[in-house]
Each structure stands twice: as structure tokens, then as C-alpha cells.
Design a protein that fits this description.
Helix content is 36%, strand content 25%. It is of the alpha+beta class. β10 and β11 form a beta hairpin. It folds into three domains: 74 residues, no CATH class; 156 residues, Trna Endonuclease, Chain: A, domain 1 (3-Layer(aba) Sandwich); 51 residues, no CATH class. It has a seven-stranded mixed sheet with strand order 6-7-8-9-10-11-12, with helices on both faces. The longest helix has 34 residues. The radius of gyration is 33 Å and the shape is rod-shaped. The structure holds zinc ion. The site of zinc ion (ZN) has 8 residues, from loops. Zinc ion binds next to loops. Pfam families: CoiA_N. This is Competence protein CoiA-like N-terminal domain-containing protein. InterPro entries: CoiA-like_N.
Length: 300
């Protein structure tokens, strides 16, 4: 569990480490003492919880008494836990004055990974999943965000398919919603941005992609949910190249058509020579195309 209540106020384990992943020991000490005095309670069942903050695993809150609390019984991989902390830290850095929540429960009962409430602008929600959810679940979530003017940022875990030429159906859903795909490399503290370009040259389908990796130290998010970096410039460069490629292709096709029509053209001087040949009885000298034309137009 990443959240619990301390004297009625929500606290989150993602605040226990700095950006270099060092513990803020004063805070660890304060929350451990608070747990000892029974002041830390589960935000879902109200049961007493304690803080575990060891050197290997991500810090977490756990119930003193193992009970049937859905939140307390959630099991998550260390990759997921660390990734969530990294995204939370990224939001805190990007919106120092914003109110940042981890595991935010929305009005429709769904949770998201991190949430920024912003009274002046749109709220921003981060959804971080290592596995794909179903298409129906994705659409339900996406519709809720759009209906409520919330800006979503969908984040996936890093895997081999990130480097594939074609994006998967799920990544395509994400790209259709937010314009690009985001992958979190939580092992190396990096964000990978990718946009796929699927286009046609005549009947030939082509796929290209733009992919850039950024250290989390070098990146922030603005109030429109955009990552502040050169990714969109790189995408624009690829789009320019694609447009050039399409333009060249269309030019080549036009040129071919012009040549083909020129090839089919009946030249009056050749036609005249052909007619003379025929009149002289030298029909074997006339090409089939001119002969056909002469017969078709009854020129003899
Ligand atoms: Zn609980």
C-alpha cells in the first residue's frame, strides 16, 4: 500500500525517497513512530498500519492484522511500485504548486496511478500499467477522462515490443487518445516516447516510427499533459520526410501517366507515312498500333 491516513491526512510512501532514491530518514522515523502510536490507519478499511522501509524493496504500508482489506491484499511487482513512485515524483517536480495524489479514486470508482488536481486548468491523470487492460476497460476509462475534461497520460512498462516497427492494438488505442505512446523504464529512470506513422504509397502500406528516450531528470510535463522535450520536433521531422516521400511518389506516378499517354498518342506525320505505305502495298511496314487506328477510324 502506498497511501494511509496520518491524523486524518493522507500520506504516501512515494514521498519517502528523493530523486536519487535515497530515503529521507527524518520522515521514515516520524511515520514509524506514528505507526507505533497507532496514528497510521488504512485509507480503505481504517485498520492500523505500519511502515516498512527497507533497503531493497520499495517502501510500503502494511496492516498489523492480516485482514480482508482489498487494498491491503493488493500484490504488485517491485517494477510497478518503483514506476509509480517515479511518476509521482515526476508530477511533483512538474507541478510544484499542484495537489498530487497517488492511487486516486475517481467519481466512477476507478483508480488511477497519479492525479494532479488543478483548479485553474484541466486535471491530469496518469495511468500506469505493465499489462494491457481489455479494450472495453480502456474505452470506459478514456471516455470518463474526455467527458470530465481530464487530460490522461497512459504509461506502459518497457518491453521488447517497444522497439517493434508496428505498435500493438493497445498501443494504437493510446496513440489515438493522446497522440503518442509512453513507456517507463523504471530500472534506468527513463521515459521512452514513441509515435507510429502508418501510411500508404498507392497500394503499398508503410510504417515508420519516431522514438526517443529521456532521463526522468531531464523531463517535465506541462499543464497540457505534454512532455517538455524535443520529441514533437523529432515527430515533425519524420512527418516532413513522409510528406516528401508521398509528394515524390505522386510526382513519379504523374510522370509515368504522362509518358504512357504520350506513348499512346497518334502522331499525324507517322500516320501519313503509314497511309502512304499502305497505299503502296507495303502494309508490313506499318506498326500494329497505327494499323489498328487506321482500321478503327476507316481511314483507307
Ligand atoms: Zn485496509
Amino acid at each position: 500500500m502506498e497511501n494511509c491516513f496520518y491524523n486524518g491526512k493522507e500520506i504516501c510512501t512515494y514521498n519517502l525517497k528523493d530523486k536519487q532514491h535515497y530515503y529521507i530518514n527524518e520522515l521514515v522515523e516520524e511515520w514509524k513512530l506514528a505507526a507505533n502510536r497507532g496514528k497510521l490507519t488504512c485509507s480503505e478499511c481504517g485498520g492500523r498500519v505500519y511502515l516498512a522501509a527497507g533497503p531493497i524493496k520499495e517502501p510500503y504500508f502494511a496492516h498489523y492484522d492480516k485482514q480482508s482489506c482489498p487494498y491491503g491484499n493488493l500484490t504488485e511487482s517491485e517494477e510497478l511500485k518503483k514506476g509509480k513512485r517515479l511518476l509521482y515524483t515526476l508530477l511533483r517536480k512538474s507541478f510544484p504548486d499542484g495537489e498530487i495524489h497517488a492511487r486516486y479514486k475517481m467519481k466512477n470508482g476507478l483508480f488511477n496511478t497519479c492525479y494532479v488536481t488543478n483548479p485553474k486548468r484541466n486535471d491530469i491523470a496518469i495511468d500506469y500499467h505493465l499489462q494491457h487492460s481489455s479494450i472495453v476497460k480502456f474505452q470506459e476509462r478514456d471516455k470518463y477522462y474526455k467527458d470530465n475534461q481530464i487530460i490522461p497520460i497512459y504509461v506502459l512498462g518497457i518491453n521488447k515490443s517497444c522497439y517493434d516497427n508496428q505498435i500493438s492494438w493497445y498501443e494504437n488505442l493510446i496513440q489515438k487518445s493522446i497522440g503518442f505512446c509512453v513507456y517507463l523504464d523504471s530500472l534506468n529512470d527513463k521515459i521512452l516516447l514513441k509515435r507510429s506513422f502508418d501510411y500508404k504509397l498507392g497500394s503499398l502500406r508503410k510504417i515508420r516510427f519516431c522514438q526517443r528516450s529521456y532521463s526522468l531528470d531531464d523531463i517535465t510535463i506541462d499543464s497540457k499533459g505534454t512532455f517538455i522535450c524535443d520529441f514533437s520536433d523529432e515527430c515533425n521531422k519524420i512527418e516532413l520526410l513522409l510528406n516528401e516521400e508521398k509528394h515524390l511518389y505522386e510526382q513519379t506516378i504523374r510522370f509515368k501517366n504522362i509518358n504512357a499517354s504520350k506513348m499512346n498518342e497518334i502522331r499525324p506525320d507517322i500516320l501519313e507515312t503509314a497511309l502512304e505505305c499502305l497505299k503502296r502495298g507495303e502494309g508490313q511496314l506499318v506498326s500494329k498500333r497505327y494499323m489498328d487506328y487506321i482500321i478503327e477510324n476507316k481511314l483507307l
